[in-house]
Automatic annotation (TrEMBL):
Family: Belongs to the GlnD family.
Species annotation: Streptomyces ureilyticus
Signal keyword on record: no
EC code: 2.7.7.59, 3.1.4.-
Domain note: Has four distinct domains: an N-terminal nucleotidyltransferase (NT) domain responsible for UTase activity, a central HD domain that encodes UR activity, and two C-terminal ACT domains that seem to have a role in glutamine sensing.
Activity regulation (UniProt): Uridylyltransferase (UTase) activity is inhibited by glutamine, while glutamine activates uridylyl-removing (UR) activity.
Name this protein carries in UniProt: Bifunctional uridylyltransferase/uridylyl-removing enzyme
Entry function: Modifies, by uridylylation and deuridylylation, the PII regulatory proteins (GlnB and homologs), in response to the nitrogen status of the cell that GlnD senses through the glutamine level. Under low glutamine levels, catalyzes the conversion of the PII proteins and UTP to PII-UMP and PPi, while under higher glutamine levels, GlnD hydrolyzes PII-UMP to PII and UMP (deuridylylation). Thus, controls uridylylation state and activity of the PII proteins, and plays an important role in the regulation of nitrogen metabolism.
Length: 824
């Protein structure tokens, strides 16, 4: 039977004919989705029009209007009918009331839910002005029957009111959406989601239509219509499967709904729902950000014009990283950025955004996704460092990661991510999908980076620990294989790859052993020690265990579990204590280092050289070299203040220190004798650092040397210059990093005391450390500085002025003072 036949039967047979035609339509297996919703709306339109026409004979100035979802023509099998009987006030009130009864009662008789009202245009506008939900419904008003001019007049007036009142109503709408999200949760993570009310559901999609109708801002259109359609299709199937007007996708109904939609199983159903919800949620984030920016500019612009004498001020652009700037509270690409020639740009932009606590511009993400060049295999060092920086940024990582994922950049970077993306976890303990759980684990791990010597390995293992889910068998075993491949691809060396694989393989070992085995049994402790293998891996595994549990949900971690795991770690650490590393051997100086040292010794002043470090791409050794950074070699006659002076000069020139080695080099007696220097004067400090420009080009070596000479003789106020530069740039909120941690290493050198510093990397950090050590009247004999993502992990071998290790109490006092200084 055709749609025309169904409508004719409904018109000929009255309510019973409509009911039969409606039932037949819903039972048609060949028609579903938008065609069925449109046909059901059309069938209902014809029936209600017939009811109106039969009761409105002789009446003028009256119309029947569909509003809300029915107004949009989106009738699910059990949807409410939202109707407005509009009249201009000229008709007899009793006649209007009788007409309303002629329409409402047949609807109720069929058991259909009805949301109805009878109003004049003035009453409708007044109610809309008082009730935001009424106004949203009227934005979708659609004429059914009666006076078309009356309906058109109301639609025009309501839209005009909405646009005029948008600066006031849109913040109300945003608050309404936020309150609903707080109550209902996020659709993209819930095991039993409300398809309409949860964040990312149908209500949010309707809110985006309302924002677009205001002409103030518009939602990203790409994928939005398909996402809305998918959730509506699921709701249709849910109504048919349950026979009820429900929007709650309960566990016991998911298999039946999946079958109704022709899907493989309930997990496939949930994944499709999550993907659709993610599109709507991301579009909501972008749209509300745009609304806020527009409203803010409208409030500020008149005052600026008054002060500037007219004209539109150019937006302020503040540099964040190479090719990345901040503008209007978002991270955008610099005008000179070339994503088609800069494969690291997406990660650099993401890391800069997360570290600044700012969102990535939609335009920037789409531009990078469209033009991004694939990273070589293995990744260049900068790409790996930027990924670690992004993962270590705490809570802002989530929003930035979602922006990259919305445009497919994550699966471009990490193809294995596709299997865990939007994958549900049917476990009451887990509150997130697999992919979001991995990001949440990285967020939790970022708070624990001060506890480990390799924060980069902790953060990457957090990202990968459940990467095996979605593969057959034990996800830890499958994950170990994937983690080896991913870690090698992103550029870790063999030792680090093995450590990451072990962390993924054993990420459940500590908590399962601590809660299920007898810790008093030496065999239990030995088995864990054999699996872990080293103190460093144990330290990382302990932090990963805690981060994983905290990211799972409130039921997965407790003080009791934490104490059991800590006890196990202590016992395993005692077994592994024999593996404690000795002080590393100092390598002999290279010919270039020795040449610079001799020149510094002869001239009595600093000398330096800058040399770019490159390697050919792994896939094409004959291709364009990949930059590793710039090697900066500095030789300075031994004197106080070298470390803070060099670090301060580099910070002034916006050079980021990735790694640094400082050591005293005693020149051969033959060199000293030839220059008539005494042996005590024959020591030269040699600094071998890898640096990179924050943005822009590198400074000239001659300029660096001139500033270093002034810094050492005291004529250059480094602290003042750094303070002036910071004051010249607007203060960004940035991330809240874990506080710095300074300790005295329990296993160190026999010739020096080892002070370990773990802190958030920031411009001038090394200068502040060096100055604090100088103020403590200790001598830095050597230093080993590394920046892993945004985390600085530094070791300073210090002595007293006479060259002896510091006594225990004095060393602890130096560490406390340095930590207090860094926390200021």
């Amino acid at each position: 039977m055709t749609s025309t036949d169904v409508r004719t039967e409904a018109e000929d047979s009255g309510p019973s004919g409509y009911a039969a035609a409606r039932l037949r339509l819903l039972q048609e297996g060949a028609r579903s989705g938008p065609p069925r919703r449109a046909a059901l709306a059309e069938l209902t339109d014809d029936w209600l029009t017939g009811l109106f026409d039969a009761g409105a004979e002789g009446l003028r100035g009256v119309s029947l209007i569909a509003v809300g979802g029915y107004g949009r023509g989106e009738l699910s099998p059990r949807s409410d009918l939202d109707l407005l009987l509009l009249h201009d006030g000229s008709a007899d009130p009793d006649a209007v009331a009788a007409l309303a009864d002629r329409i409402w009662y047949p609807v109720w008789d069929l058991g259909l839910a009805l949301d109805h009202s009878v109003r004049t245009p003035a009453e409708a506008r007044k109610t809309a002005g008082e009730d935001l939900k009424v106004q949203l419904g009227l934005l979708d008003a659609r004429h059914l029957a009666g006076d078309l001019g009356l309906t058109a007049g109301l639609r025009t007036a309501v839209l005009a009111d909405w646009r005029n009142q948008a600066p006031k109503r849109l913040p109300e709408l945003q608050e309404l959406c936020a309150e609903r999200a707080e109550r209902q949760g996020e659709l993209q993570y819930l095991l039993e989601p409300d398809l309409k009310e949860a964040r990312g559901g149908l209500r949010d999609a309707t809110a985006l239509r309302a924002v677009a109708a205001s002409w103030l801002a518009d939602a990203p259109r790409e994928g939005l219509a398909d996402a809305r359609k998918r959730i509506l299709d699921v709701r249709d199937a849910l109504h048919l499967a349950t026979g009820r007007a429900t929007d709650r996708l309960s566990l016991q109904e998911q298999d039946q709904v999946a079958a109704e939609l022709g899907l493989l199983d309930a997990d496939t159903l949930l994944r499709q729902v999550y993907e659709a919800a993610r599109v709507i949620s991301y579009a909501s984030d972008v749209t509300w950000r745009e609304v806020g920016r527009v409203l803010k500019s409208r409030a500020v612009r008149p005052r600026l014009r008054a002060m500037l004498g007219g004209g539109k001020p150019a937006p302020e652009r503040s540099p964040l990283a190479e090719g990345v700037v901040e503008q209007d509270g978002e991270v955008v690409l610099a005008r000179a950025a070339r994503p088609d020639r800069d494969p690291v740009l997406p990660l650099r932009a993401a890391a800069a955004a997360a570290q600044s606590g700012l969102p990535l511009s939609l335009h920037a993400v789409r531009r990078m996704a469209a033009a991004a060049r694939p990273l070589p295999t293995p990744w260049p060092a900068e790409a790996r460092e930027q990924l670690v920086t992004l993962l270590g940024s705490g809570r802002p990582t989530v929003e930035v990661w979602e922006a990259l994922e919305a445009e497919g950049l994550i699966t471009q970077l990490l193809p294995d991510w596709e299997r865990v993306r939007c994958r549900p976890q049917r476990n009451a303990v887990h509150i997130w999908t697999v992919d979001r759980h991995l990001i949440e684990t990285a967020v939790q791990a970022s708070e624990l980076t001060r506890r480990v010597g390799r924060p980069d390995l902790l953060l990457v293992s957090a990202l990968l620990h459940d990467i095996g889910k979605g593969w057959p068998g034990d996800h830890s075993v499958a994950g170990e294989i994937i983690a080896r491949d991913v870690a090698a691809r992103i550029g870790f060396d063999r030792t680090d790859v093995a450590t990451l694989a072990a962390l993924v393989r054993h990420h459940l070992l500590l908590v399962e052993t601590a809660t299920r085995r007898d810790l008093e049994d030496p065999a239990t402790v030995r088995s864990v020690a054999e699996a872990v293998g080293s103190q460093g891996t144990l330290e990382l595994l302990h932090a990963l265990t805690e981060a994983d549990a905290l990211a799972t949900g409130p039921a997965a971690w407790s003080s009791w579990r934490a104490s059991l795991v800590a006890d196990l770690v202590k016992r395993v650490s005692a077994v592994l204590a024999g593996d404690a590393p000795e002080e590393p051997e100092t390598a002999a100086p290279t010919a270039e280092q020795e040449r610079l040292a001799i020149e510094a010794f002869r001239t009595g002043s600093p000398v330096l050289s800058l040399r770019a470090q490159t390697e050919p791409p792994a896939e094409d050794p004959s291709g364009e070299p990949e930059p590793l950074g710039v090697e900066l070699l500095i030789a300075v006659p031994d004197q106080p203040g070298v470390l803070p002076a060099v670090a301060g000069v580099l910070a002034m020139h916006r050079l980021t220190v990735r790694t640094a080695e400082l050591r005293a080099l005693d020149l051969p007696d033959s060199v000293q004798d030839s220059e008539n220097f005494s042996p005590s004067e024959g020591s030269v400090l040699l600094l071998d650092w890898r640096v990179a420009a924050e943005y822009g080009s590198l400074p000239q070596a001659a300029r660096l040397r001139a500033d270093l000479v002034r810094a050492l003789d005291g004529s250059l106020d480094i602290a003042g210059r750094l303070a002036e530069r910071d004051a010249a740039y607007p203060r960004r909120r940035g991330i809240i990093a874990p506080p710095p941690r300074v300790t005295v290493a329990s296993v160190g050198s026999r010739r020096a005391t080892v002070i370990e510093v773990r802190a958030h990397d920031a411009p001038g950090l090394l200068h502040r450390i060096g100055r604090a050590l100088e103020d403590a009247n200790v001598r830095v004999r050597s230093a080993h500085v590394s920046t892993l993502g945004a985390n600085a992990v530094d070791a300073f071998y210090v002595t007293d002025p006479e060259g002896a290790p510091l006594p225990g109490e004095e060393a602890a006092a130096v560490a406390r003072t340095l930590e207090e200084t860094l926390r200021e």
